[in-house]
Amino acid sequence: MPSLSKVGKWRRRLQLVLWVALGFMILIAVGAGLTWYSLERTAAEGKKELAAAIAETDALDPRWRWEEIQEDLPPIPDSENSMRVISQLADSLKDWNPAELLLSDGNEVLEDWAANRQLDEEGITLIRDVREKRERSLALGISLRDYPHGRKTIELSPDLLNTSLEHAQHCRLVYSLMGVDIEELLSQKQVEPVPERIRSILHASAALRDDLNLVSQLVRMAGRGVAVRETERLLGMAEVEDSDLRHLVGYFEAEQNENLMLTGVRGERAGWHFVYENIHSGRLSFAEFLARTRGNSGSKPELSLRVAGFLGEPTLYEDHAYMLRWINEAWKIAQLPAPQQSSAWRRHEDDFRTGSGDIHPPRWRPISFFFMPSFRKIGEASLRDQSRLSCVIAALAAERFRLAHKRWPNDLQELCPTYLKEVPIDPFDGKPLKLAQRDDGIVIYSVDKDGNDDGGDIHKQSPEDDDPKDLGVRLWNPDHRRLPPEPKKKDQPHDDDP
């Protein structure tokens, strides 16, 4: 039997262990209590901030919530809804492969050309092959000329990020198919139907008019850019009657009166408010939101996400308030005169990233910092969209002037007031758009986002962020239209070639 001294020794050790364990338990309990108190206090303070931000938003833009905006949209009968036609077109193209429009060198046939030159034999053959295989789809696309209005009811996913916008991509199919049809018509010197095809492109993009998100509005900007490009193509390949030119002016002027950026910003605010409200109400836990951002929507969040969600949820009230106020600032910028927007968007993004603006960011921004879109980049895209529309309207006016006077205008002011009410203002520098004379025609252009006048040296296609060229529309003298195809560039020899 163990001695009494040994028993006492083990008893004291056991008591020490128990006291240490009790101490740890007390520390854990105190830590948990302090953590709970801190989280509750954070939530309470955040709720006050959120209530104030919601009141500010209500005063700034009544009926700004998602369901309120939807309720205020005017009804569109099914028989007049262009989205119904676009959906039918998409169904007819379920086997569509973008490679159908690729040339042997890998370039897309609708983009690899100078606007005043014919396609080569390979391009024409490809265009006709696609057109023959897609006659029903083309007929649906052409019919959109009679559908100026459209809408797709968007069902928001609880996390917003997984909301389906497939219908917006369907509009891109219309852009491509109309481009195919226009190329075939121009190759056959059938000019008269082309303006109506351009109208179909604009109507396809206008089907996204009521889409309350920036992605759809970017797709709409892309469609308007395609319409501008096809108009430049038309004027590079043929002489168009004055009546058709006037119709085209009307189509583009109708588009110019709509603020796509404002629609997108308003929708982003309503959509993200919907997400925060889901988390606050318990319809969606923060842990589930985090899991869905990783693509894990069908299973329970892992332990690390559940812990992050528990600790992060109380901070979301303040983050929610910050999101509302910050997008409210974007909403205000979107309504400024265009020349004031570029610098405003830069300041807005810089302030957001550095926290140096009037709206001080919360201590932790688990949603707004990582998921708020770059309003600056989209704002610049919107200004480019407006520039293109202004340039093409001025270009159509210049072409009408040339038809009437047998010469190009000396400057854009000469077009006023007969062909233009006034010279359009460049959104990027606040000055009138510019006209540059060329030996074979003219260029009407904007200085683009760098603000520098490069003399009308314009982007050939979509401008790159680091490309300092101007943005505009090129017009050619009649004897420089419909030129033969450009000779294909030969492959550059490698150093080891003989």
Structural account:
Helix content is 56%, strand content 3%. The protein is mainly α and 498 residues long. The chain has three domains: 66-258, no CATH class; 263-373, no CATH class; 388-484, no CATH class. Strand 1 (434-438) and strand 2 (441-446) form a beta hairpin. The longest helix is centred in the first third of the chain and has 57 residues, at 4-60. The chain is elongated and about 120 Å long. Residues 494-498 have low confidence and may be disordered.
In total, the number of domains comes to 3
Specify the structural class. Answer: mainly alpha
| Major sheet: arrangement of strands | 1-2-3
Q: Tell me about the largest β-sheet.
A: 3 strands, antiparallel
Helix content bin:
55-70%
